[in-house]
Amino acid sequence: MTHSIFIYILIAAVVSLIIRALPTTLLRRKITNRFIRSFLYYVPYATLSVMTFPAITEATKNPAAGYAALIVGIVVAWFRKNLFETAVLCCLTVLVIEFFL
Amino acid sequence: MGKDYSLKLETNRSELVKGMRDGVPIGLGYFAVAFSLGITAKSIGLAPVTCMITSVLCHASAGEYAVYTVIGENAAYIEMAIMVLVANARYLLMSAAMSQRMDSSLSFFHRLLMGFGITDELFGISIARPGMLNPNYMYGGMLISIPMWAAGSAIGCFSGGVLPERIVSALSVALFGMFLAIIIPPARGNRLIGAIIAVCFALSFIFSKLPLLSSISGGTKTIILTVVISAIASILFPVADEEEKEDGR
Question: What's the complex ipTM?
């Protein structure tokens, strides 16, 4: 079955808006359920970790460059905590390594 | 009658300008990362204009990456809904945190628009301001950074096929660099988060390599692993109030 790009994007837009605006518009009290609070706290780390590896090693032409970018990204993020720098240095790592390989 | 946040007031105009100023470095970072997202969009056959519309409506790195993954796999609509939900679930938490800092009389329209503007960075700079949130500050940040995000993705999508393969390969990791910049810094002060990241990396790797498990789509894998790992972590290590506050984003 072929799906419509328009409907895909509409679903994505509506779901994105609901997630972002539901608490701001409806929630006027603090969430007290400890499990839900903990779950929401851990979700971002789990999602982004799963999405990053091993995908980063499959995104580059040469997997070794992807692994190098992963290590550089972790080190830069750890010491510099800067989003822009981390992204740029990951790109440069791949550029340099693929130039030699 | 609640607080007046209209632009007739000088203080509100100055908040808007401050937000725009703080939005510039964010926008520059967005442009680079969105460019890499645009390349992903190009690779699954999307047009630059479609990419730009998606970027304005969704404006989220992980969320949009999920969107393109689902479209690329021609997966079911329900998978799109669940993937976007999971990839953006952190915004639910940020939105909840922001709701605690809004004037109780703040109108539905302001609450909706501020919710729409939530990203890791815009949430970060907004929540860092003292006192009750002034919507105009966040709007200023949105006015600069969201168009730059959209432009970056459209230009990336447009030039993805024109750029040399070597450059495309390098730019395609920008997105993952951004993901790392979000998850790694909190691991510095919290070993548990570091351990969770390591477990996720390991299981994600195993899922993609084992013969039977590797047939599962990337989107489904993300959903299953996120829900299972987060739920187990929540049961074993429930979060205390203080940890959430320290995290800050």
Answer: 0.86
Domain contains B5: no
Q: Three-state SS string across A8-36, please?
A: HHHHHHHHHHHHHHHHHHHCCCCCCCHHH
Check residues B151 and A83 and name the one with the higher pLDDT: B151
Mean pLDDT of B136-152: 93
pLDDT, position B149: 93
For residue B187, is it within any domain? yes
Alpha carbon of B200: minimum distance to chain A alpha carbons (Å): 5
When pLDDT is cut at 50, 70 and 90, the band that residue B120 belongs to is confident
Which DSSP string do the residues of B89-107 spell out, in sequence order? Answer: HHHHHHHHHHHTTS-TT--
Q: Are B105 and B1 in contact (CB under 8 A)?
A: yes
Smallest Cβ–Cβ distance between B201 and the set A24, A42, A49 belongs to A49
pTM above 0.80, yes or no: no
Sign of CA dihedral B201, B204, B208, B210: positive
Residue A53: which of B25, B121, B201 has the nearest Cβ? Answer: B201
Searching chain A, which residue's CA lies closest to the CA of residue B69?
A: A51
Amino acid at A10: L
Measured from the Cβ of residue B18, the count of other Cβ atoms closer than 10 Å reads: 17
Check if A71 contacts B (Cβ < 8 Å): no
Count of domains observed in chain B: 1
In a domain, B71, yes or no: yes
Residue written as tokens 């800067």? A82
